[in-house]
Specification:
single chain; alpha/beta; 5-stranded mixed beta sheet
């Protein structure tokens, strides 16, 4: 007997021409009544599968052996959860699975991407990857633009007593790096790995996605950022540790390479001003000390941070050197995190 409760609540169309079914994680079978023409249009593999004449019922020349609700029934080898993610893409032209900067995007689309590759849905695969790439900068200019947006968002949330804007914490409005690393590593999307690893390197391993949401008032309301650390494998963690060590060394080098140079004009007080600038970064920006890109960004705008500056020549030199080192660091991120 057909159980309507096992039919998917949205992916079951009365005018569908085929029923696909798959087993859920809890062992029950879920049914999806969809349109053969739509599936065949996007997938040559599925099109070839449907081109094979179906088995007929014993003693009948017209009745299909396996039917469900009056149409052909195909038991899929994929999980029901992956199939839901996959089929939703074909019946969701507005792309509601994609919300800009949504930290859940990699988790939500992983099943669809897996089946898009399996069934050779190239257009769908490209669309998923493009949406993932849109959340993770591939250039330094894109990184700076996203950083500026994050600063504005953090300011908005800091003004709210609950830490929420529109019912969401800051952490719910920015991309989450561990899930991005997982999907990029598993499905060959190297373009998003450098930025995702860099973002992850700025977070404490104590800042766990699930743990913080168990008690959101303690951390999330104050703008804490988290990661799904459980999704990372040993290789990911080794890459992360390697990258963090090199970033720490790069940060330490800023003090000598940029602020340790002598004034070319031998201006009185210039060396002291350089030292005071670096001391400020070390003492008043402890969080930024883990973020050399951010420190170097501030080095490029010393006039907005300090009243007593090095001489104009030294200030200009610091700006030029900081900009150069930022570009060099960004280009070297694949090597920093052993991604090459």
């Amino acid at each position: 007997m057909e159980d309507s409760n096992e039919r998917h609540c949205t992916l079951y169309y009365d005018d569908g021409t085929v029923v696909l079914s798959a087993v859920t994680q809890n062992g029950s079978r879920k049914y999806f009544r969809v349109h053969r023409s739509i599936l065949c249009k996007h997938s040559p593999v599925i099109s070839d599968m449907f081109a094979i004449p179906p088995l007929l019922a014993q003693g009948s020349s017209t009745r299909i052996a396996e039917e469900y609700d009056g149409v052909a029934h195909v038991q899929m080898p994929d999980s029901a959860e992956d199939l839901i993610s996959f089929l939703t893409m074909f019946y969701d032209p507005l792309g509601t699975a994609y919300k800009r900067f949504d930290p859940n995007t990699p988790v939500l689309v992983e099943g669809a991407l897996k089946l898009a590759m399996k069934y050779e849905c190239d257009a769908l695969r490209r669309r998923i990857i493009e949406n993932l790439e849109a959340d993770w900068p591939q250039t330094l200019a894109q990184w700076d633009a996203r950083r500026a947006e994050a600063v504005i968002l953090r300011s908005e949330h800091s003004l709210q007593l609950t830490g929420k804007v529109g019912g969401r914490y800051l952490d719910d409005r920015l991309p989450e790096p561990a899930s991005a690393i997982r999907i990029a590593s598993d499905y060959g999307i190297p373009s998003i790995l450098p930025a995702a690893f860099y973002q992850l390197a700025l977070l404490s391993t104590n800042a766990d996605w699930d743990a913080y949401r168990a008690n959101p008032g303690k951390h999330l309301r104050f703008g804490a950022r988290t990661a799904r650390w459980r999704l990372l494998d040993k290789r990911d963690l080794m890459r992360l540790v390697h990258g963090q060590k090199l970033l720490a060394a790069y940060t330490r080098a800023i003090g000598t390479d940029i602020f340790g140079s002598r004034c070319q004009r031998a201006m009185k007080g210039c060396t002291r001003a350089r030292n005071d600038c670096w001391k400020y970064f070390q003492e008043n920006a402890p969080n930024s000390m883990d973020d050399p890109l951010d420190i170097l960004h501030d080095c490029m705008r010393l006039d907005t941070l300090f009243n007593e500056l090095p001489c104009s020549v030294c200030t200009s030199e610091i700006t030029v050197m900081a900009e150069k080192k930022r570009r060099e660091l960004w280009r070297s991120l694949p090597a920093v995190f052993n991604l090459q």
